[in-house]
């Protein structure tokens, strides 16, 4: 008998959703009539980030992996606007209102996990469960550094994108560049994510992602606000914790955050920040499916 985990995974449907802010595009797996899982990717990634995990979670769910605004094929914000974290929460609250009025499980990696956490507090009637991959709330700011951080952000906005986007001779060059980015990707992860973030012109290949995504944030939450959000989560939470992921950064602070979650489980896995792409995906998907099935039984 063929191991279902090693069998070829089904190709996704391409989907798009109208929202008040603009059109969100994405990749979907599973039957339309099944309860939804809304998957949110990390900073500078896109819906293809879930290409290996998404189909494995589609046994009893419709998995909808979205390109966040400014990423992949989704809308860019109008001139003069930026990509603040809480704006994503507003965008996704509107998406849930329009396209998942009966609620959904949220699955978020990195930035997507932060958005999912805040969304579960902002729109608790639309969130039925929360899975965060290498994510447990945002890094925080402090009052002392706020003036300098604000000045840095405004200066960057005033200066614009500071030059034209790089152009690559072929997608392979873009993959290599992304492997050496601020949050480096392994080749396995980059080869999955990068093609959806590229556009071809007569000059070559360049990024379709909005350059303003790289602008510094104008304001960060402080730790008391993050703790208040963690304490207010009213649904079960699964945290996928990578052995060499970003949760190992400021480990003591992150470890202290777990105690504020009313109902959580930790799924430890070897690997780095993109463990759902280049780690033990079969083990992660099995752990997530077990947690999801227990959620369904409890309901």
Automatic annotation (TrEMBL):
Query: Which InterPro entries does the protein's record reference?
Result: AB_hydrolase_1 (IPR000073), AB_hydrolase_fold (IPR029058), AB_hydrolase_sf (IPR050266)
Per its UniProt entry, which superkingdom is the organism in?
Answer: Bacteria
Report the residue ranges that make up the AB hydrolase-1 domain in this protein: 35-140
Listed under GO cellular component are: membrane
Family annotation (Pfam families): Abhydrolase_1
Question: What is this protein's record name?
Answer: Pimeloyl-ACP methyl ester carboxylesterase
